[in-house]
Every structure is written in C-alpha cells, then in structure tokens.
Amino acid sequence: MDKQEAKRSLTEIMAKFTGYVGKRLPQDVLDKLAQLREGEDSPLARVVYDSMFENQEAADKLDRPCCQDTGVIEYFVTAGAGFPLLGELREILGEAVRRATKDAPLRHNAVETFVEKNTGDNTGTRVPWIEWDIVPGDCVTIEVYMAGGGCSLPGAAKVLMPSAGYEGVVQFVFDVITSYGVNACPPLLVGVGVSTSVETAAMLSKKAILRPIGTRNPNPQAAEMELLLEKGLNEVGLGPQGLSGKSSVLGVHIENSARHPSTIGVGVSVGCWAHRRGTIRIAPDLSYEILSHKEAVL
Ligand code: SF4
Fold it and tell me: What confidence tens digit (pLDDT) does each residue in 3-37 have?
C-alpha cells in the first residue's frame, strides 16, 4: 500500500471508529451500569437505569448516537516511534472527525472562539484536541473521548498549599461534585489528578477517566483513596440522573505525578453515565483491534 492509500485507509478506520464510539458504550461502562441497577431497590432508580439500557438498544437499532451531545472530540494517542503514519496522524484525525460528523452523524459542537461561529464540522483551532505520548514500537493506540458539555462542566483544577494535605484533595473533590455533579447525568465517573500545577493535575484527571472502570491506581495509598472517595460520594446518594439512589458514581480513578514540595495540584474531570470512550490499537499494516468494545464491527 502506498502512503496516500494508507492515509485514506486509516482516515476511514478512524472516521468509522469515532462515529461508533458515539453510538455504543464501552463494555466496562455497560457492566458497571448493570451492576449499579442490581444494587438499587428504589423502583424509580431501577426505572431510570432501565431507560439507559433501552436508550442503548434504540441507538443500536437506529444506528444513532446514544446521547445528542456527542461532545468535542479528543484523541489520546500512544504512538510507537516507528508507526509509519506518525507524521500524518494529526491530519488524518482531523479528517476522520469531519467524516464522522457527516456519516455518523455527530452534532456540530466546535465553536471557533473569538469568532464565535460554529465551524459545522467539529473541527477548529486545536480541535480535535490531541494528546501525544511517544513510546518505543511500531503500533499506535488511540483513545477517542467525546467531551460533552454536561459531563465536562464539573471539571475544575486548583493548586493547594502543601499544608492542605490529602484532606484538602478530598475536600476539593467533594466540593466540585456536590456543587456541579448533577449538571452531568449521574452516575458519574470521577477522575482525580494529584500533581504539581493546575494544567498537570487537570490533564491527569482527564487521563484518569480513560482508564477502564474498576482498575486501581498501582500505588496502594492512591488506590485506597479511590475506594474511600467512591464510598463517600456514593453516600451523597445522587442516584441515576440525580434522582436519588444508592450510588452516585461509576467509580473514582486517581492519576498522579510527583509534585513540587510547595504545591499540591488537584484536578477533577467527570464522565457521565453515557461515557463515550473507545480504544483502538493499530498495527503498521493498518490491521486493528478494538480493545474497549466487545464484538465491535466498523
Ligand atoms: S451529561 Fe452525558 S448523558 Fe447527559 S446530556 Fe451530557 S453527554 Fe449526554
């Protein structure tokens, strides 16, 4: 396959996969929603969970997005330095978004700032947003995330004085979720970044919600904080769609980095019940494997 043909082929794969992610929830989210539904004994909460599964069935049947807000598209790319189309990937992903917007279809969500005009194709300055991690190897793994207006609303980051300690981190998470959490559609997937400055904490909090639900931070203390935050936030009792129930969250994930001794940066990013995230691994010959969804066909 020559380079032009390879570019066309990868654009098509990524356009189809981006559209697919808008329509079908990943398996870990479906499994967790089913588990939370089983744990509810309030008839209202169970009906709301049932409606989420009916919504997913309808999206499947009609081949339409499972929420009208298909978000701003963000790609998190872990690229092998030897991947043959590394230099072309930015252009490919931009074109994939344009194509998915038309074919899926996806709602037009990119407003060019200062110009204040909707671009009409979900692309614009630095959008789709792309984060890069270059690693050894020749494959590329791409996470697609649809950052909806509601689920991104509760995002916030702050730098705490070190005297605030980890208690300050917990207080910040609770303040953010109890002030804005119901603006997203619960149960929520809460990502927490613990780091050194606002931008590193905010980015790590976003990476935290890309982790499969149920995975734990490898640091035992961070993993314990994930569990304690989950327990505490569930006691707030937001329930599905904020209508009260036994659970508030799909989970709490923490990602961390080393920090400057005089700061503790903390960031919070939130995913909603319709957590549209997908992971695809692409080999140098452009054969691919979808890691996030069972039996996915593009
Ligand atoms: S919070 Fe999620 S489910 Fe609710 S409207 Fe926004 S994207 Fe859709």
Answer: 999 999 999 999 999 999 999 999 999 999 999 99
Considering the domain architecture, whether residues 106 and 166 belong to the same structural domain is answered as: no
- Cα 283 to Cα 31: distance, rounded to the nearest angstrom: 28
- 292 lies in the same domain as 239: no
Query: Range of 159's domain?
Result: 150-271
Looking at the fold, whether 26 and 157 belong to one and the same domain comes out as no
**Ligand 1, closest atom to CA 274?**
3
Cα(144)–Cα(75) distance, integer angstroms: 5
Q: How many domains is the chain partitioned into structurally? A: 2
Residue nearest (by alpha carbon) to ligand 1 atom 3 = 274
Nearest Cα residue to 151 out of 237, 46, 241, 232: 241
Whole-model pTM?
Answer: 0.96
Among protein residues, the one with the nearest Cα to ligand 1's atom 7 is: 148
CA gap 1, 87 in Å, rounded: 17
SS3 state of residue 93: helix
Q: Which atom belonging to ligand 1 lies closest to the Cα atom of 67?
A: 8
Considering the domain architecture, whether residues 267 and 283 belong to the same structural domain is answered as no
DSSP secondary structure code for residue 212 in this structure: P
CA distances from 115 to 106, 110, 139, 169, 197 (A): 22, 12, 38, 37, 30
Helix residue ranges, H only, 161-197: 165-180
